[in-house]
């Protein structure tokens, strides 16, 4: 009669290793969600700043409340973790600044985007005048 010896070391090793592997996989997925949301918030903030700088050149300008509404429209239902960000908009005659921040448990995200209010039409007119003066 032959006697078999069974060792349980493989079961013990896997019972320790599998939770570690699953934990690392979940942390990678969480990191991807974090950077996804950060990119969405950053893009929405930048688009808001650029649109604000364009609208500021108009006669009536733009109000900070309108820019906040525009930001929320841009990021509406796109984020996974940071779904209720706090937005602060500062609209001057020479610069638009959008600051977005949010937190969830132990994670925080903060983004600041700026766009200068330029007047390209004025520069083009000035260059055209200089060209005409040079030709005379």
Key features of this structure:
136 residues; alpha+beta; 3 helices
Give the low-confidence spans: none
- Total number of helical segments? 3
Label the structural class.
alpha+beta
Number of domains: 1
Main CATH class: Alpha Beta
| Rg measurement, Å | 27 Å
Would you identify the CATH architecture? 2-Layer Sandwich
**How much beta, percentage-wise?**
15-25%
Largest sheet: 3 strands, antiparallel
- By CATH, the topology is Pantoate--beta-alanine Ligase, Chain: A,domain 2
Brief description of this entry?
The chain has a single domain (about 10-135), classed as Pantoate--beta-alanine Ligase, Chain: A,domain 2 (2-Layer Sandwich).
Descriptive report:
There is one protein chain. With 136 residues, this protein is of the alpha+beta class. It has a single domain, classed as Pantoate--beta-alanine Ligase, Chain: A,domain 2 (2-Layer Sandwich). The chain has three helices and three strands. The chain has a three-stranded antiparallel beta sheet with strand order 1-2-3, with helices on one face. β2 and β3 (107-116) form a beta hairpin. α1 packs antiparallel against α2. The protein is elongated.
How would the blueprint of this fold be written?
Layout: H1 9-56, H2 64-75, E1 86-91, E2 95-104, E3 107-116, H3 120-135
Antiparallel strand pairs: 1-2, 2-3
Helix pairs in contact: 1-2
């Amino acid at each position: 009669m032959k006697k078999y010896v069974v060792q349980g070391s493989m079961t013990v090793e896997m019972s320790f290793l599998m939770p570690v592997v699953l934990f690392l996989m979940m942390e990678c997925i969480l990191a991807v969600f974090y950077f996804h949301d950060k990119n969405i918030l950053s893009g929405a903030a930048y688009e808001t700043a650029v649109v604000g700088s364009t609208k500021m050149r108009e006669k009536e300008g733009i109000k900070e409340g309108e820019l906040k509404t525009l930001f929320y429209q841009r990021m509406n239902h796109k984020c996974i973790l940071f779904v209720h960000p706090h937005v602060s908009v500062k609209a001057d005659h020479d610069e638009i600044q959008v600051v977005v921040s949010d937190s969830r448990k132990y994670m925080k995200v903060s983004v600041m985007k700026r766009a200068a209010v330029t007047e390209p039409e004025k520069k083009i007119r000035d260059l055209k005048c200089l060209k005409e003066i040079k030709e005379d």
